Amino acid sequence: MGFKRKSSVWLGRSLLGGAIAFAISLVIVANGQDILSAQPSTAFTTLPSAQIHPLPSNLAQWRDPQQSGDYFDQVQAVVVNYLVWSTFPVTVYVEPPTDAEQTNPFTAKRARTWITAVEKAVQEWNVYLPLKRVNQAEDADIQIARSLLALRFDRTNQDGETRKLPILRARSAETRFELYAKKPTVAISDPFSMSEQPSILSHRVTVYIRPDQAADYLQAAARHELGHALGIWGHSPEQTDALYFSQVRNPAKISARDLNTLKRVYQQPTRLGWMLAS
Ligand SMILES: [Zn+2]
Question: Which fold has domain 8-266?
Answer without folding.
Answer: Collagenase (Catalytic Domain) (3.40.390)
